[in-house]
């Protein structure tokens, strides 16, 4: 069994202070996809760097911003950072680790909540990402794109769909993009293992005791090729941990 976990750390140094290494010790993921490191590689806390994992990071050029990483017990046979689009790569949003029988990506899509300019860039990112991801469906190895896509797909994925229908992260064009991603052949692994189940969220605002009241959004995904979905046996949002404003989303695959 191979357990893959995805976590938007909202700052790896903050996540460390909130028990990141304790979570690893208890949860035992084989592969950890991290988003929003908000640190340069040399700023990752020593206890994390000393973990018995192979570590690779793709940090943003801007200090304290964005960045993704992949930690794994098995050493990757190949690491690729970025996709050759300058602004996306400068923000440290996409990286890949290839293993003997699997390809894993850590993805951090832009948020559009700060205004029209960032929303425009978010849509540009999505337009670029879709054909990039599609290429991997033809790969000889199964692939999974793990991370924070900053989009709730359907009404079941957000606590108040009516109030948020004009909010970035639940806009019709964003939701339609997720549908297109799935129509091309990808699978939303967590949802497929929890069909029709409501109140399952991976992010909660720090305001108004949102997590305690479970007023959340499901914006963190495992988007896999079909053959990997068939191997998925258990999918969990580990909400008992308060590592950040996101919870780890973990899937165990029969690999």
Automatic annotation (TrEMBL):
<feature type="active site" description="Proton acceptor">
    <location>
        <position position="246"/>
    </location>
</feature>
<protein>
    <submittedName>
        <fullName>Exodeoxyribonuclease-3</fullName>
    </submittedName>
</protein>
<feature type="active site" description="Proton donor/acceptor">
    <location>
        <position position="148"/>
    </location>
</feature>
<comment type="similarity">
    <text>Belongs to the DNA repair enzymes AP/ExoA family.</text>
</comment>
<feature type="site" description="Interaction with DNA substrate">
    <location>
        <position position="246"/>
    </location>
</feature>
<feature type="binding site">
    <location>
        <position position="246"/>
    </location>
    <ligand>
        <name>Mg(2+)</name>
    </ligand>
</feature>
<keyword id="KW-0460">Magnesium</keyword>
<feature type="binding site">
    <location>
        <position position="150"/>
    </location>
    <ligand>
        <name>Mg(2+)</name>
    </ligand>
</feature>
<dbReference type="Pfam" id="PF03372">
    <property type="entry name" value="Exo_endo_phos"/>
</dbReference>
<feature type="binding site">
    <location>
        <position position="8"/>
    </location>
    <ligand>
        <name>Mg(2+)</name>
    </ligand>
</feature>
<feature type="domain" description="Endonuclease/exonuclease/phosphatase">
    <location>
        <begin position="6"/>
        <end position="246"/>
    </location>
</feature>
<keyword id="KW-0464">Manganese</keyword>
<keyword id="KW-0479">Metal-binding</keyword>
<dbReference type="GO" id="GO:0003906">
    <property type="term" value="F:DNA-(apurinic or apyrimidinic site) endonuclease activity"/>
</dbReference>
<dbReference type="InterPro" id="IPR036691">
    <property type="entry name" value="Endo/exonu/phosph_ase_sf"/>
</dbReference>
<dbReference type="GO" id="GO:0006284">
    <property type="term" value="P:base-excision repair"/>
</dbReference>
<feature type="binding site">
    <location>
        <position position="148"/>
    </location>
    <ligand>
        <name>Mg(2+)</name>
    </ligand>
</feature>
<feature type="binding site">
    <location>
        <position position="245"/>
    </location>
    <ligand>
        <name>Mg(2+)</name>
    </ligand>
</feature>
<dbReference type="InterPro" id="IPR004808">
    <property type="entry name" value="AP_endonuc_1"/>
</dbReference>
<dbReference type="InterPro" id="IPR005135">
    <property type="entry name" value="Endo/exonuclease/phosphatase"/>
</dbReference>
<dbReference type="GO" id="GO:0008311">
    <property type="term" value="F:double-stranded DNA 3'-5' DNA exonuclease activity"/>
</dbReference>
<dbReference type="GO" id="GO:0008081">
    <property type="term" value="F:phosphoric diester hydrolase activity"/>
</dbReference>
<feature type="active site">
    <location>
        <position position="108"/>
    </location>
</feature>
<keyword id="KW-0378">Hydrolase</keyword>
<feature type="site" description="Transition state stabilizer">
    <location>
        <position position="150"/>
    </location>
</feature>
<feature type="binding site">
    <location>
        <position position="36"/>
    </location>
    <ligand>
        <name>Mg(2+)</name>
    </ligand>
</feature>
<feature type="site" description="Important for catalytic activity">
    <location>
        <position position="220"/>
    </location>
</feature>
<dbReference type="GO" id="GO:0046872">
    <property type="term" value="F:metal ion binding"/>
</dbReference>
């Amino acid at each position: 069994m191979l357990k893959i976990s995805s976590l938007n750390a909202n700052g790896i140094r903050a996540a460390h202070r909130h028990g990141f290494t304790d979570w690893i010790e208890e949860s035992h993921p084989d592969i950890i996809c991290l988003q929003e490191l908000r640190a340069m590689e040399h700023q990752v806390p020593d206890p994390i760097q000393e973990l018995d994992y192979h570590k690779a990071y793709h940090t943003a050029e801007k200090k304290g911003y964005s960045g993704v990483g992949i930690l794994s017990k098995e050493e990757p046979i190949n690491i690729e950072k970025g996709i050759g689009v300058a602004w996306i790569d400068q923000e440290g949003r996409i990286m890949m680790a290839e293993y003997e029988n699997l390809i894993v990506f850590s993805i951090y899509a832009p948020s559009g909540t700060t205004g029209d300019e960032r929303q425009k860039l978010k849509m540009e990112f999505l337009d670029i990402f879709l054909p990039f991801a599609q290429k991997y469906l033809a790969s000889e190895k199964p692939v999974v794109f793990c991370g924070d896509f900053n989009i709730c797909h359907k009404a079941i994925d957000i606590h108040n769909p009516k109030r948020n229908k004009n909010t970035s992260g639940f806009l019709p064009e964003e939701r339609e993009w997720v549908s297109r991603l799935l129509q091309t052949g990808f699978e939303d692994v967590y949802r497929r293992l929890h069909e029709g189940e409501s109140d399952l969220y991976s992010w909660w605002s720090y305001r108004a005791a949102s997590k305690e009241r479970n007023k959340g959004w499901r914006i963190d995904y495992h988007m896999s090729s079909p053959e990997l979905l068939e191997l998925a046996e258990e999918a969990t949002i580990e909400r008992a941990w308060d590592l950040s404003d996101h919870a780890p989303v973990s899937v165990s695959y029969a690999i």
